[in-house]
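Example 616, ligand adenosine monophosphate.
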Amino acid sequence: MAKIPIDLKAGEIKKDNSVIVGIDLGTTNSLVSYIKDGKAIAVKDKSGTNTLVPSIVSFAPSGEILVGEQARMNLILHPERTIYSVKRLLGKSYADIQGRRSKLGYTIIEDDTDALVKIQIDDKFYTPVELSAEILKFLKQRVEEELGLPVTKAVITVPAYFNDTQRQSTKDAGKLAGLDVLRIINEPTAASLAYGLDNLNDGKIAIYDLGGGTFDISILEITDGVFEVLSTHGDTYLGGDDIDNAIIEFWMDKYGIAEIAVMDNKEFSQAIRLTAEKAKKHLSFNDKFSETLGGVLFEINRSEFDSIITPIVDRTILSVNQALKDAKLSIEQVDELVLVGGSTRIPIIKSRLSEFFKKNVNDTLDPDEVVSLGAAVQADVLAGKNKRILLLDVTPLSMGIETMGGLMDVIVPRNSTIPIKVGRKYTTSMDGQKNLKVAIYQGERDLVKDNRKLGEFILKDIPPMSAGIPKIEVHFIIDSDGILQVRAKEERSGTESDIEINNHLGISEEEMGRMLLESIQHAEADMKVKALQESVNEANYIVNASKKFIQQNTSILSEDEIQEIQERTSKLKESISSQDKNSIQSAIQNLNAYTTPLAHRALDKNIGDAIKGISL
Ligand code: AMP
């Protein structure tokens, strides 16, 4: 029902034999793979040695954008212009990352709202989607050079725990990089596919993934070729870096080096970190490591190493136990154990897991490549070249509703398996708003005017409330016959309305292909309009919020403070008419910087009043 081969170069639909690639867009490293003669292979750099591309983007002062190894060099030279671990920020709001911001070398704007995070470099503001797109462009180019062909389609992996927004952000990044993302699949599913475990009949698989900075355990069930995530657990701040730190601490203890000596000397601290990582890797294949650094002989043997990382391994085993408990499985019920991530090369990790699960581990593939190799296997299935996995009915185009400023908010992404029921919460944008129009569209463009309208209805009689207070849940339900029902319900009052649509499948293959093609051709321009509109929405919201803030807090604000807020608010209003995303963002930042401490003062006073109220 939904496999549409389009030739992007020629701009037409035809039976194509183009390659679909598999991409692992990782926190520390990313890589791309494809299937050659039935075998998945990861693409290497020009020197033919490395498949891994560090997930780092750096903005050189000259304006050049560097990705991968070249960008990594700038981590020390230009930390404020070099972005790493951007995956941790994908689909996250400022409120989500509270407390983590100060640990990064680059600037995340000061804000604590629900708006999505942006990163500031000079006077430009970048979204995690734009930064991830740079990494994807780099991978696209690498595989195109290897194949000597344009590559326009990909399967990209994400962690099993990624939510809708994070998955959609990953897709958007792909689109911006000029890739038609045919499917987003879970990393543990990809790893299982790489080992051919989709052939298991009603099997349960544990995937243990210990990378450079994150740890995940996922338990999957596979029935007739269909994967289901039974449970996931993990620690988003545990990985190889912690093992390197444990070695450094061991050495400082052993050789009596004061912490200050390491912390105060940037060069020494960097050198000892690199030596610790080298020691760790060396000990995966040898019994002893020694190297002289700054006149000191640094040594560590396998049994010392094993004992210092035991607490780290124990922590991961606790997570494994929790995941098994959540999946309601005993150790004996797990059929296969798969290892993912560079840190699983460590022998004691393999042996502890093998002992715990009472079975051999699947470790014949490179643990750094296995996810991307599996993504390539899935890509091959989508290309129709590999019939071994069952493909279910899927939605041919994304479906969603119109939100403020004519933006398309996707609720059911393209290629979702049906039947499906998905809901999302919305609210009103004006005080006392009584009606809410729900306009339903189908298509891949960011503005609804470029998509296909399927219908609309009005949710009436919302009781009068301030903007942002009503909780309106919009549900899209598609049954196995492909009938779409859209329902909206205001939760506080119970007001409800719905519509049934069955023409979303009544679209020709040509029309569908054209819509997909246009969405990729216009991706960059669309994304710009979308980013600008989102900034305008955010700015309008903040202008209103500031007005209300002054009205409600006149008693604790001085004349000067009120005037300053008003001046900064007017500047923000002016910036809206400039239609320039970066000036709007600067003006938002300028106003927020002034109002945040005042908002804290107001909050303290309100709490104080409330406490007084109680004591009376
Ligand atoms: P990933 O995020 O999956 O690329 O994992 C990278 C992590 O694996 C880093 O912390 C590396 O130091 C670690 N790593 C790579 N090779 C080895 C090895 N042979 N032994 C131990 N750790 C390794």
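Summary: The CA atoms of residues 394 and 417 lie 4 Å apart.
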